[in-house]
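Good day; I would like, with your permission, to put a structural problem before you. What I wish to show you is a protein chain and, alongside it, a tokenised description of its three-dimensional fold. Please examine both parts with care and let me know of anything in them that strikes you as inconsistent. Thank you for your consideration; the sequence and its tokens are set out here:

***
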Amino acid sequence: MARFRWFVALLSFISATLTGQGLPPSQAEPSQGLAASPVTLIPRSHEERERRYRAIHHIILNVLAVDEFNRPVTGLKPQDFELLDNGQPQKLASFRQMNGDHGIAPPHVILILDAVNNTSRSIAFEIKEIGKYLGSNQGRILYPTSIAILNASGFKASRPSLDGSVLLRESRTLFKDIPPYICKGPSEDAANAYPVSGHGDHNFGLSVEKIDDGNCLSERFTLSLTALTDLANAQKNVLGRVILIWIGPGWPLLTGPEFHPDTAEIKANFFDHTVQLSRTLREAQVTIDAVYSPDMFRKPEMQGVQRKSFADGPLTEKQATASDLALQAIATQSGGRILESKSIADQIARCVADVQTYYALSFDSVSSPKPDEYHSLQVNVSKPEVRTFTSTLYYGEP
């Protein structure tokens, strides 16, 4: 019940974001009054339909190629790449080697400190590491960079800057007196707002303590994904790639004895959000890198999960789980890295350096027989010892 209530809250937020509900009056749809106005269908020309089709089915992939020493590989040609869609070779529609900000718009970087899913000790250490990165190289920043924080109040970010000293001052303001995250826990208002049909206040036979724990985990899960969804949607109309470096272990996976097995409705919710977030990140060209200390996988909620293939998403609603929305899964599927190190400053620099040399490939996908059809993606290079990082999947459309 805890998982369902908080996940319905998440979906309510997403629905409001997509439909304009909850936005300021200037951004929301015009009021229609009490009576719904008749829907007017606007005919589209053949050229307009063709443009829309190409926009939906034209898949752009940002590909990082590295050698056995993790150094970027330059000078590759189109014939060096093999692109597979569900195991089938695809013809490249475009190919370009990208060098830093030599493009339509420079890439921009967002460093987000996760103060919701982290301990006070880890947060203090990570703040020092962020400061160390900003102060390195005499404060010269390669690409426009924003400093951000996720805390109990939600997501907040500074203006982008190329000046490390400016960003350092911004970080001191954002990171000042961060209170420990305290879960609100279940409330009568939340229960009334998001009732579980047919269950009422039944706690599935779990103890009150475990229900409280479950609500706390669900609350952090919802707050984190809400922030990421909001951020991804905000980047859709911003030119250039986005490198989002998430500093922290990620949110709970909603597994364990605190939770009742997922119903078909909850699985459908997980699947719908996985598809929508994956599509938004790809269209906005957001790559997520997860950076955290080496003790992350010693957390109880992550035990056994490290063996899961984060590159694979759910094929159908029946296979969807909360772990498909784990930070590590989303990062891998976006083409990003999962980095563990005691030197978080070095890992931030490594993530930023990945944008200096990469390849932009594209291909035209075919129509899917049904909406949200799962497609695996694989990019291989015909050079020995070369690995690639890029989007690992997409969900096709008719």
Q: What stands out?
A: The chain has one domain: 2-9+53-396. Residues 208-234 form the longest helix (27 residues).
